[in-house]
Amino acid sequence: MRKLINKPEDFVEEVIEGIMMAYGDRLRLHNGDSRIVLRNPPARPGKVAIVTGGGSGHLPVFLGYVGRGMLDGCAVGNVFASPSSQKMFEMIKAVDSGAGVLCLYGNYGGDNLNFDMACEMAEFEDIKTKTVRVRDDVASSPPEMAEKRRGVAGMVYAFKVAGAAAEEGLNLDQVAAVAQKALDNIRTMGVALSPCVVPQVGKPTFSIKENEIEIGMGIHGEPGIEVREMMTADAVASLIFDKIAAELELNEGSEVSVMVNGLGATPLEELLIVYRAVAKLLAARGVKVFMPHVGEFATSMEMAGLSVTIFKLDEELKRYLRAPASTPFYTSENK
Amino acid sequence: MRKLINKPEDFVEEVIEGIMMAYGDRLRLHNGDSRIVLRNPPARPGKVAIVTGGGSGHLPVFLGYVGRGMLDGCAVGNVFASPSSQKMFEMIKAVDSGAGVLCLYGNYGGDNLNFDMACEMAEFEDIKTKTVRVRDDVASSPPEMAEKRRGVAGMVYAFKVAGAAAEEGLNLDQVAAVAQKALDNIRTMGVALSPCVVPQVGKPTFSIKENEIEIGMGIHGEPGIEVREMMTADAVASLIFDKIAAELELNEGSEVSVMVNGLGATPLEELLIVYRAVAKLLAARGVKVFMPHVGEFATSMEMAGLSVTIFKLDEELKRYLRAPASTPFYTSENK
Amino acid sequence: MKASMLRTAAAAIRDIMVANKDYLTALDQQNGDGDLGITMVQGYSALAQMLEQETEQDLGKLFMKCATRFNDAAPSTLGTITSFVLMGMAKALKGKTEASLEDMTAAYEAGLALMMEKAHSKPGEKTILDSLEPAARALRANLDKGAAQALTAAAKAATEGSEATRTMKSVHGRAAYYGEKSLGLLDGGSVAGRLIFEALTHIAG
Amino acid sequence: MKASMLRTAAAAIRDIMVANKDYLTALDQQNGDGDLGITMVQGYSALAQMLEQETEQDLGKLFMKCATRFNDAAPSTLGTITSFVLMGMAKALKGKTEASLEDMTAAYEAGLALMMEKAHSKPGEKTILDSLEPAARALRANLDKGAAQALTAAAKAATEGSEATRTMKSVHGRAAYYGEKSLGLLDGGSVAGRLIFEALTHIAG
Ligand SMILES: Nc1ncnc2c1ncn2[C@@H]1O[C@H](COP(=O)(O)OP(=O)(O)O)[C@@H](O)[C@H]1O
Ligand SMILES: Nc1ncnc2c1ncn2[C@@H]1O[C@H](COP(=O)(O)OP(=O)(O)O)[C@@H](O)[C@H]1O
Ligand SMILES: [Mg+2]
Ligand SMILES: [Mg+2]
Ligand SMILES: [Mg+2]
Ligand SMILES: [Mg+2]
């Protein structure tokens, strides 16, 4: 295992410890619990709170987006595993200031079950909650089964936009509606070139041949659409673009934000080469790009590969995307 | 070759093309030359200009630090190869507004020769230049031969601090002195777990066994101090820490900034685990950490591994480190 | 059954999960993420440990504690699903400090019902339900034969049900992405279900 | 020699570098970064291409153009070092449109001197100098025998000098990190130097 870690079973605790040592001025642990990361200082009372949660191993997803203009809290699971409903519930209780809590997270079995349980517990204590699930991965199910799709990098745009709406003072239903509107206009697809290793498992859960590329593979190694012989960056870009463009109306005059997201081991250079190809395809259709995001936003530890997200914008969504946000792992300042 | 690229010989051009498509509002190419990247809009006239240059394959180093509060220009070489002196000279001429130009770059044979040649050309045209070479890699030579050491991730701190001094209005000699003072207090050491592939070469120029770790390896795969059996994150942190602490006086009350820099394939999670270990070693000595930097600042494409930089601060250096800076790849805003 | 028996049961299930950890991992790696071995060991270890200290005698409250503890230790899909079963049993057993085989069977049926509601699943979908639900039917059919024999029948039904998952297509969780390709594969969750009844048979016998 | 001969020479050197590209790469991979084959091909290809169009007859100006072009195409360590040699030759040949073997030898010596000054190096340090400098001495010693024989002697000296790098310890560039470990290895730069004279011998003979 080519990992710079200590005991595999301490992996998550030590990551959180490192985060708190580095960013303890901007994040805090709820009652010292390393599985509940909250914004510090808390948002002004009366703001709708937004929380997320999910497995570890995807930094900056999920907790990296806790901060001003984005999320109020994040429940932290083990590597690729949901946090417990108990932690989620405690987090929801901690961040609610009366305006209610939006649970905004990726559509995965474990996370769904646990957040549902947590929301029931919250309801029991008269805390209003709303749930919006991120299902942006077009490779994970055909359009007619879109409700089964997984949530991947597109969730970062949803955090950003919902976060801005909440800061602006919208109420719970409105913030949820903004998040949903954003997600209706967000599509992502990825490719993988190498597997990753869950520390406690110690070996890859799947393998990819040296000269092969997995089209549409999920961030935990879920199989994608097909395995192909290694392709050029331009070919990958246009394959993904076509798949996404079939679902978003991208016409002359449309505006989009594009995220080219590295899964972990893929260098920034390659992300930029793919960005270039996507930007050209958009330009050829007369589509303008607003605030491109090129970098690592949602990873799978040391997996090689990338995903491309296209987020179709209108004036409202642009304003929310542009609004200031600052966390230790994300800032709108230089986007 | 597990790379998402097109033709290997187009690698650098396409990376620059991607960068200009994404960040064309904040960077510009000098006369459309993809090998000369300049700050856009240019700095106010009268500011000392700071330039760098070096091989490609290290993003965000080097051109990622061109922007407000940091660099004015960067000459771009092929992968792991120096830019030509002609390009450096053209860049120097383009950014000089009369106050002179500081050439701040890593101590590598090709870069030294080319920058020297470029400075001679500049002198011939009455442009004042000063050279400060970054030599922060303690593993690359023993202390008594420190002038032979390579420049690695510590150069980012030098860019930051010199950039702030120049923005503040210091003259060329003063800016060079600030850069040198910073570098006198900066030390870095790295470890590598896997090699990287120069696109035009197509295969790794060196290999690392699955269960081995290269202590002190350079960012182009230059051999380090020794090859060891795989170690824990804590052991790596203390090995690096001891080596650095032997050269910087780190006592009760000292203040430092710490950079834990991923070389490419190593996940953020592991960087944070190592940060945690370094922060504990510092805390044990009563040393305070200011503005930690954890992430990818100076990479070697898909190499796995990381480096740790310690930057010993005084009030002046802290002020320059804290000063606002913003480039497409770096911002002080959320540090 | 009484509170103290729950402790023995949890320890036995924990032991069988520990012994089969790598097997479960391997099964989950076929069409999942490979965490099944780890999470089952974590969940039942936490249960067993908690029950060693626990003095609660009300079976309803005790099962509720078990549900929360299990989910907290193993919040994976199957961990959470297990918690729903325990929660459903808790509701049915509320107020009781002793429960007959029939009470336990009814509680178990209620647990499965709650789980199916929450997980939107039913038998035949290549999940743990395909061992747990046949086991429930076997228990009900053998109530009159006493705990030992009823559990043996349940274990047999669970084993057959688990084997039958080979002929099923996954519709839930990660495995569902495999669609047709999941045919022929044994579902790891159903094996975990079988192991539970295997362990219970041992302590009852 | 005249300007037109430089064109033939550059083409010949380019061809020999192309033929030895992988060999140079392999040598540079032993204790460097493996770019030597690529950069030599790039540098000499650019030179040859430029000279095909170039009409400049002043040898000084022509060599200066070569120096700039070479560095621009191949700004690696060895590429820049080569440019310094060409620059030194340019200064010595300034104003001439024809140069005798003696003029060329003197210019070459001046080129090596400039390079040694800028690169802070001298023979015996396991670099290209260890083939280029013996070649200069051989040229000087065989001036009276005409270009063909003098170049043959220079090529022989370059070959021996290159071979001798096996016994030397690297002190410059990446290779220097290997220290003692560099003993026994052939320096790739010195081989590039040998190839230059091999190519020149062919066109002179
Ligand atoms: N909706 C569901 N209802 C019942 N059982 C399910 C459901 N989804 C998954 N399972 C069971 O859970 C097992 C996978 O559990 P687990 O490994 O915890 O999932 P994950 O790792 O995806 O969170 C499957 O083998 C299956 O038996
Ligand atoms: N200071 C120097 N003086 C003369 N020759 C040198 C010097 N440094 C390196 N060389 C030569 O250059 C060769 C390496 O060239 P190159 O591959 O371009 O270096 P790099 O890839 O490190 O920039 C060495 O084999 C050696 O012959
Ligand atoms: Mg899981
Ligand atoms: Mg080189
Ligand atoms: Mg699983
Ligand atoms: Mg080289």
| Secondary structure tally, helices of chain A | 8
Distance between the termini of chain A: 35 Å
Give me the strand/helix succession of chain A: HEEEEHEHEHHEEEHEHEEEH
Helix fraction bin of chain C: over 70%
Low-confidence parts of chain A, pLDDT < 50 over ≥5 residues? none
CATH H-level superfamily of chain C: DhaL domain
- What composes the largest sheet of chain C? none
SSE arrangement of chain C, N to C: HHHHHHHHH
CATH architecture of chain C: Alpha Horseshoe
CATH class label of the largest domain in chain A: Alpha Beta
CATH homologous superfamily heading of the largest domain in chain A:
Dihydroxyacetone kinase, domain 1
End-to-end separation of chain C: 15 Å
- Percent in helix of chain A: 25-40%
Portion in beta strands of chain A: 15-25%
The top level CATH class name of chain C: Mainly Alpha
Q: What is the CATH third-level topology name of chain C?
A: Serine Threonine Protein Phosphatase 5, Tetratricopeptide repeat
| Helical run tally of chain C | 9
The chain-level structural class of chain C is: mainly alpha
Shape of chain A: globular
Shape by Cα distribution of chain C: globular
Walkthrough of the structure:
The complex is a heterotetramer, with two copies of chain A (335 residues) and two copies of chain C (205 residues). Chain A starts with 10 loop residues before the first helix and ends in a 13-residue tail after the last helix. Chain A is 31% helix and 22% strand. In chain A, strands 7, 8, 9, 10, 11, 12 and 13 form a seven-stranded mixed β-sheet that branches. Chain A has a six-stranded mixed β-sheet with strand order 1-2-4-3-5-6, sandwiched between helices. In chain A, strand 5, helix 3 (109-124) and strand 6 form a beta-alpha-beta unit. Chain A folds into two domains: 8-184, Rossmann fold; 186-314, Hypothetical Protein Tm841, Chain: A,domain 3. In chain A, helix 4 runs antiparallel to helix 5 and helix 6 (233-245) crosses helix 7 (268-284). Chain A is an alpha/beta fold. Chain C is mainly alpha-helical and 205 residues long. Chain C has one domain (3-204): Serine Threonine Protein Phosphatase 5, Tetratricopeptide repeat (Alpha Horseshoe), CATH 1.25.40.340. Chain C is built from nine helices and no strands. Chain C has helices at 3-19, 21-31, 36-53, 59-73, 77-93, 101-119, 129-141, 146-164, 188-204. Chain C is globular. The two termini of chain C are 15 Å apart. Chains in contact: A-B, A-C, B-D. At the A-B interface, helix 1, strand 7, helix 6, helix 7 and strand 13 of A face helix 1, strand 7, helix 6, helix 7 and strand 13 of B. The structure holds adenosine-5'-diphosphate (ADP) (2 copies) and magnesium ion (MG) (4 copies).
